[in-house]
Design brief:
Layout: E1 5-8, H1 13-24, E2 29-33, E3 47-51, H2 60-64, E4 69-72, H3 86-103, E5 109-113, H4 131-143, E6 149-154, E7 156-158, E8 166-170, E9 178-180, H5 181-193, E10 200-207, H6 215-220
Parallel strand pairs: 1-2, 1-4, 2-3, 4-5, 5-6, 6-10, 7-9
Antiparallel strand pairs: 8-10
Helix pairs in contact: 1-5, 3-4
The structure holds NADP nicotinamide-adenine-dinucleotide phosphate.
């Protein structure tokens, strides 16, 4: 990875783990945050801090210029409207980042952290600002962007491997379960490395067993996405 990787939400919990793993691999990392001074790994070599808010377009192009990859790990609000609502953070924010990247004519690998349940509109989580609908529309914007991308849909997050370190990737969005933030971060980093992860959407779970050693093989088993021609209503 010669070009820097932008981690949007890099001051957060999964984003911080992504940042640390990338630094361990010798990558340059641009942490994009509204308050980058609070970034946990800001003193690590190779970490640059950029202040930007995904809801506004002003600072994003400079933060993303020249990046070889973008990881989008933004936590949405749950109100129906207002500045932090899911529409603003999960849909407008994603589109703002895609537009900022396009401004430079670059084609970074875009890794979007989404969640399970996004195709289950009836799920109770959708009562919070139509969170699931907006997340799915954000996913659709990424899939339609023509960038190389990977959409990672974590199950419920835990700070450690509650159920084990083995990972299971699914693609029908029918499951439920847990996954550690470390496994999500690893999936994002491995996706950036792997051509096999490009144009793939998958759910991510932990289960009893050991952590994987061959992520490209896990990605290889996934079915490539069929991209919608028209946005969902
Ligand atoms: N909790 C779960 O069970 C669960 C399950 C599946 C998926 N997820 C998703 O997984 C992702 C990572 O979760 P996490 O626990 O690591 O979240 P987290 O620790 O809350 O970090 C999320 C980051 O989002 C950033 N952010 C929020 N609004 C922003 C904005 N307008 N512009 C730029 N950055 C913004 C914040 O950065 P700054 O404050 O520094 O700007 C924060 O550091 C999130 O998308 C989450 O919704 C969660």
């Amino acid at each position: 990875m010669d070009r820097p990787i932008a981690v949007i939400g890099g001051a957060g919990r999964v984003g911080g783990l992504v940042t640390r793993r990338l630094v361990e691999e010798g990558a340059r990392v641009r942490v994009v945050s509204r308050n980058p001074g609070r970034t946990p790994h800001r003193h690590l070599p190779g970490v640059e801090l950029h202040q930007a808010d995904v809801r506004y377009t002003d600072a994003l192009p400079a933060a993303l210029a020249g990046c070889g990859g973008v990881v989008y790990g933004v936590e949405p609000g749950t109100a129906d409207s207002g500045p932090n609502c899911p529409e603003a953070t999960m849909y407008d924010g994603v589109r703002n980042v895609l537009a900022a990247v396009a401004e430079h004519g670059e084609r970074p690998h875009f890794v979007l952290i989404s969640q399970i349940f996004v195709t289950r509109r009836e799920h109770p989580m959708n009562a919070y600002g139509r969170l699931l609908d907006w997340r799915l529309r954000g996913e659709d914007a990424v899939r339609a962007s023509r960038l190389p991308y990977t959409v990672v849909r974590p199950s419920w997050l835990a700070d450690d491997g509650l159920t084990g370190d083995r990972v299971r990737l699914e693609q029908d969005d029918r499951g439920d379960g847990w996954v550690s933030r470390a496994a999500v971060a690893e999936a994002c980093v491995q996706a950036l490395h792997s051509q096999e992860a490009v144009n793939r959407t998958f759910e991510l779970y932990n289960e009893p067993g050991a952590a994987p050693t061959d992520w490209p093989m896990l990605f290889h088993r996934l079915i490539p996405d069929r991209v919608l021609e028209q946005p969902r209503l």
